[in-house]
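Q: Can I see a sequence and its folded structure?
A: Here is a first one.
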Amino acid sequence: MYRRHIAPALADRTLAQVAQDRDGVARLLTSGALGSPSISPRRAARMIIVGVLDEAVKAGKLPRHRCADIELPGRSAPANGHDAFVFPSHAQVAQVADAVGIAVWLMRGCGLRISEALAVERADFRDGGTVLRVSGQASRDGRARLLLKHRRAGVYRDVLVPGWLAAIVADLPDGPLCPGRASRYVPYRTALNRFSQAAARAGIPAGFTPHSLRHAYASALLARGVPISDLAVWLGHRNINVTYAIYGHLVPDASARAVAALDAEYAEWAALSLAQLTRWAN
């Protein structure tokens, strides 16, 4: 990303010049220069540029910069804006699940994308229901099971299943967990319409989408100390930088934990030294 796109545009400029040129950085991030209409490479470029400028400010190399919170074109919410991070109550999610089906709990409990959740079948659960093998996604019309996004045939990922979800699945019949009426799986548009209508009835704030359940899953794990490297695998991110770009702001600050660990180590070391001195004195 840096070599192909950022360096040709910015490498001949100083940090101070880039820090004050918000319009220039915005043009780079929103133009066709990144070579793709997808928002993902734009997020990655923004993460690199803003991350370098943030570190320069922390290191005292710059007093400040003007490149934070640049919005990106695309269908997804900007990663740094966190617009899609809407966390409704359990009762509200349950109300949506009543309308849409178990796909809601698969997204919330296993971090699946909606197309992946719609394609899950009873046979995909392994090891007594404790592991879900995600190996495909439902077509938009629900008639077929397709390869995972940007993956080859035979590629899958295994996701841990929480106990409460395993208990729900245990009594379900074989076959698709979200069967359609005239198709093998519930069509994407049908599921999305049910989801949106149920979310509105439940009083969930605007901005709540099926992907918000994936965000809630990731947030819950990170808040409880699960390493982001493990999370990246379960989410199906091939590049951990993508996980950092979306969820890095949720990673607990390591500095306080590092200081506590060093203090604890010193306390043990000091206690051991005192015990040795006592033995020598005796």
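Q: Show me another, different protein.
A: A second, unrelated one:
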Amino acid sequence: MTIPLIERFRDRLPVGEATPVVSLGEGSTPLLRAPRLSERLGVELWLKWEASNPTGSYKDRGMTVAVSKAVEEGAEAVICASTGNTAASAAAYAARAGIPALVLTPQGAVAGAKVAQTRMLGARVLEVRGDFDEALAAAQELARRGTHVLVNSVNPYRREGQKTAVFEIVEELGAEPDAFVIPYGGGGNTSAYAKGLSELGSTTPIYSVEAEHRPTTLASAIRIGVPVHAESVAAARAHVVTVSDEEIVEAWRELARLEGLFCEPSSAAGLAAVRRGAVAGERLALTITGHGLKDTENADRYGPQPVLVDPDPDAIAAAAHG
């Protein structure tokens, strides 16, 4: 049986005996060696497969703590603004806790699979005529009015849960890597990793990888114009690397073809930076933040297309060889 993240790291989290544990079995995700990519890139590459969390993304690490604390403090509902993964996670953990979730998404900017997942989990989804930053501002105002508890990464409990990925990586490797490499949207995960490293007394560098054109990138999970945690990223002295959508797509495809990991495009941003040679170190830990099934539209657009054949063995054999 999977130990809930809160129970596994209780001594490192702001929880007490009165905190109800709202869990879906998050955390304890695989750390996978990437042998083919390692050989190709000339580094020792390890992949933290956060897509195996209950809703398919790393957001669940923080959401279990945020929703557990919200319930402890008497919350009757939660709210978030989201480009998709936070929405699904908030909806799932609110459902688990038996409280409503209100989700604000920027109009037309969220992968359809993520919206469908969120709706199926019972959240009330409202499309905001604006971008993510405007949706977040509205969510923050409603939280200030006391009607909902905000569970975006500006909620410190979210980052407390997310820092546990650092503990797991170091524990599984038996030592610190030369660098941690993560996608950079709002910067909450960079802030969380920095907190985890600080608690370990570590100075291992963090490379935060953003899209070149933030507001329009195909990598919808990091399609955030103004990172709300930009100051925390700067304070953590993270190395910010900017990559193009073309680099993200190539890394995304390569990760799937060579290592068998189908992630969403934003999750490949870190690999794009490594492929370019923008990350220093020989032993690197890349966090793969979300599952590819969360963005099937882009997978259909950029993946190899199926070939129509007759039900004839010779025709199938010929087609199989290209």
